[in-house]
Amino acid sequence: MPLNTGARLGPFEITGALGAGGMGEVYRARDTRLGREVAVKVLPPDVAASSGSRERFEREAQVVSSLQHRNICTLHDVGREGETDFLVMELLDGETLAARLDRGPMKLDEALAVGTEIASALDAAHRAGVVHRDLKPGNVMLTRGGAKVLDFGIAKLTEPEGTMPGRLPTMTPTRTTPLTSAGALVGTLNYMAPEQLEGRGVDARSDIFAFGAVLYEMLTGRRAFDGASQASVIAAILERDPAPLSSLAPIVPPALDRLVRACLAKNPDARRQSAHDVAAELSGIRESPLPRTGEITAPARRGWRIPWPVSVIAIIAVATVAALLLRRSPEAPARVVEIGVATRSGTTSNFRTLALSPDGTTLAFVDAPEGAGAWQIRVRRIDEARSRLLEGTESGQCPFFSPDGKEIAFFAQGKLKAVPVAGGRVRDLCDASYGVGGTWGKYGIVYSQSFNEGIRHVETMGGRPEMVTTLDGSRHESGHVWPVLLPDGRHFLFVSRTTADEPSRIEIGSLDKEPRKVVVAADALVGYEAPWLLYVRGGAIYRQPFDPGNGTVSGEPAVVIDDSHYSEVWGSAGATVAGDTLAWVPHHPEKISADWYAPNGALVGHAFDGEDLTAARLSPDGTRVALSKFDRSRGAKDIWVLELARGLMTRLTKTNADDGLGGWFPDGTQIAFQSDQRGAIGIYRIAADGSGAPVVVASDPDHDELLGSVSPDGRTVYFEREGGPTGPDLWRVPVGEPAKSAPWIATPDSEDGPQVSPDGRWVAFVSTKSGSREVYVRGVEGGPVVQVSLDGGSGALWERDGKALRCLGTDFRIRRVPISFSGDRPIPGAPDRSADMVVDRAVDASIGPDGRILLLRNVSPPEDAIVMRLGWKSRLR
User: What is the pLDDT of residues 431-448, one digit of tens each?
Assistant: First the structure.
């Protein structure tokens, strides 16, 4: 029965009809809770007739609701009012692609833009285990913000067909009129893949076939497969190929014609194998002019996840270009080629620390297997299509090459280590903290081991490090980081970081401890490649002529790259240079999805979306969330508070300092956070309603102090202090008495991340006591230190009853470990693996008063994490 204006479905008030959608009716409605306009689809009675179908529908709707992508219509909610089942979706303003095609074919650039967006949406869905199976022009909406793919199989549900092994169940699309006596087909006839018509297994490649048919129609204004009857359409799909695009649209580039034909291959194995590859090819065709005869080009920012025949051709092409670049005479002009380096786990801050071999032929970076595994070092040669893992580099950070390019140094497990590029035994060089950059020359290794110290030097074979720079207290320097050796091997560039009142600057130091010299003000250092000094300022990479002999720059700086992902927190450039190769991490705003998980690890709902969020903490009553959010325009992080019910965001801090989130005070009126507003990182508190100025909790001009948590009575703050005689240790301070800061646990091991239990009697923290990072527990007044995690731990969360810990493992899982206590001894139980949460691309997590877990995940669309530009100097010429 149609719904009238004013009718209510839960909190959604109907304000008008939008028409039919799939097998249901769609209405405009107002969400009375959040005050937003939405679209509500009322599902047909046959979907709601079976309780089993309804349960499966709700479970699968949760999967679809997790598809947070700019080109997918968002599913907000699913509900039931009386006997009426309904879906709540994003309200879109625009027209369907079908309506647009009624007016004729699209212009080439318009079709390429829309096609790229549709392919990107399919890629995001396929990665989440969702196959659309009813892609057609009527299920694509054209809006001012771009194309939006609709109806991911939620209009009609039957048993999933052809589910790919190991993937989530797919949605089942709109049912059409039965075409065979064996039963009903799913999908829309003119866009069905041959395997759908024949009742064979259906997977993501079936969507690629439908996409090829849609793209064909966009370019020509006519369907790829059509006929006077259903039988003739079926015959066309199974037996005939559509007319070549070039015969109907002569301006279509040959590469686009080939791509469409590859998408429409009858055999799934002969098609393009992933929507990611299709989107990459379309974007490359769109962005790049047709290559001239005899010229080899490669589109920027594209990965290598392509079918093997194309991979072979690509490998040969890149190898040829690499050989030309590496073997050409000095007078020969170089080709400019860009290679997109796809990573396993997307773009994160870890990829902002890159290194190139001295000859510019090999890239080293930090990556992790998607969904599991610790961070590791990977290497990629320019003449190879894939990167490879360096065994023994688990938890490795900040790689850099030896002068001959045969070894890579890196920081891991409290050590500076080295490993052969070809693979082999890892050797320890010296003790070191987490590492903030290093450089290797003929006189040894120069490196920075923390944010609040000077530069150190150690011999090539290891030994006792020596400080070669010291912080200048008169300038309130907070640290010397990211050193780069100059050609003489004794002088080096580095970044001097200061308070928020003074900009960072690049200076020259020396192994002989000569007086330092200021070169230029900059946010980060890329490197020196004669005659250019490359550095970051305001998120762009600049070049400027530099004379290493007298340490001066000349001329005016010029932009080389305008979208480098500079990390203000790490002070890293997100780029590296060697020879005629420049590699960088492009800037992509990080789309963050915050979702609710039940204690058993099941996804139970969506909380909110955001951009560039780095941390979240639920308030004691669970109604608000404190957030740390990066502001790229200022290169700084701020503290915000989000009211969950109203969606109201309130900014608490706004300076050029880096403000990191800590936790709430138990009464919910104040928030603790860390900030470098005075130079070294200190701990502060501020009113949660934004009133008043921050108040110092603990601050030391010579040490960074990183916030852990506030005790349940609000009287004590536990934190990590860096730069002491035993490295990172745990301290505590009475609130209101910063002068009484005192060590809580100080050992030669590295300790961080203290979290006080709900009853205030115990502290969970991370330590390298076992040789790798694990979670431990100790009583606040002392006692035995007991290991809780078993297979790596990078952090811990107490459940609200204090009877279990959620350990954030290095394998990208949140694992529940029950815990009891006897006297002063914690007694951990066996991990409850049934409650494991796989948190691929997780950003942060927090536990609410009802036991639910709020998890922030990076859901940015897949992009190449790194770009290598071969022949970058040639572009300057």
Answer: 987 789 999 999 999 999
Q: Are 223 and 212 in contact (CB under 8 A)?
A: no
pLDDT for 217 equals 93
3-state SS assignment for residue 739? helix
Q: Which amino acid is at 336?
A: V
Q: What is the 3-state secondary structure (H, E, C) of 465-516?
A: CEECCCCCHHHCCCEEEEEEECCCCCEEEEEEECCCCCCCEEEEEECCCCCC
Give residue for tokens 């087909």.
Answer: 185
Cα–Cα dist 111/253, whole Å: 12
Which residues, in sequence order, are bridge partners of residue 75? 89
User: What's the pLDDT tens digit per position in 45-76?
Assistant: 665 555 555 655 565 566 666 677 888 888 88
The candidate with the shortest Cα–Cα distance to 587, out of 351, 870, 325, is 351
Q: Count CB neighbours of 782 within 10 A.
A: 10
- Give the C-alpha separation, 816 to 315, whole Å: 45
- Enter the DSSP assignment of 163: P
DSSP letters spanning 239-304: H-PPPPHHHH-TTS-HHHHHHHHHHT-SSGGGS-S-HHHHHHHHHHHHHSPPPPTT-----TT---
Residue 831, φ and ψ in degrees, nearest 5: -55, 135
Question: Catalytic residue among 77, 85, 123, 134, which?
Answer: 134
Peptide bond into 369 cis (omega under 30): no
The total number of residues written for the chain in this structure:
877
More confident residue, 165 or 319: 319
Spatial distance between the Cα atoms of 130 and 168, rounded to a whole number of angstroms: 7
**How far from the centroid of its chain's Cα atoms is residue 335's Cα?**
32
Q: Give the pLDDT band (50/70/90) at residue 7.
A: confident
The residues facing 536 across adjacent strands are: 524, 541
Task: Say whether 472 is catalytic.
Answer: no
CB within 8 A of 250, min separation 6: which ones?
none
- What are the pLDDT digits (tens) for 691-706? 888 999 998 877 878 8
Q: Residues 568, 575: contact at Cβ < 8 Å?
A: no
The reported pLDDT for the residue numbered 155 is 37
CA distances from 799 to 285, 844, 851 (A): 52, 15, 7
Residue with tokens 């990066």: 630
C-alpha count within 13 angstroms, C-beta hemisphere, residue 236: 18
State the maximum Cα–Cα separation within the chain, in Å, rounded to a whole number. Answer: 89
Across the range 801-817, mean pLDDT stands at 83
Query: Stretch 162-168: mean pLDDT, rounded?
Result: 30
Which run of H or of E encompasses 779?
strand 774-779
Beta strand 804-808 with 24-31: parallel, antiparallel or unpaired? unpaired
Residue 103's DSSP bridge partners are none
Q: Do residues 624 and 688 touch, judged by C-beta distance below 8 A?
A: yes
Residue 157 CA: distances (Å) to CA of 44, 122, 151, 770, 784: 11, 19, 12, 51, 56
Residue ranges with strand state E in 385-468: 388-389, 397-401, 407-412, 415-420, 427-431, 438-441, 444-447, 456-458, 466-467
Q: What is the pLDDT of residue 203?
A: 85
Angle between helices 204-220 and 254-263 (to 10 degrees): 140
Name the residue with tokens 């006897």. 822
Mapped onto helix, strand or coil, the DSSP state of residue 796 is strand
Q: Can you say whether the dihedral through the CA atoms of 860, 866, 871, 877 is positive or negative?
A: positive
| Per-residue three-class SS string for 166-218 | CCCCCCCCCECCCCECCECCECCHHHCCHHHHCCCCCCHHHHHHHHHHHHHHH
The dihedrals phi and psi of 232, each to the nearest 5 degrees, come to: -70, -35
In angstroms, how far is CA 742 from the centroid of its own chain?
37
Cβ contacts of 331 within 8 Å, gap of 6 or more: none
pLDDT at 47: 56
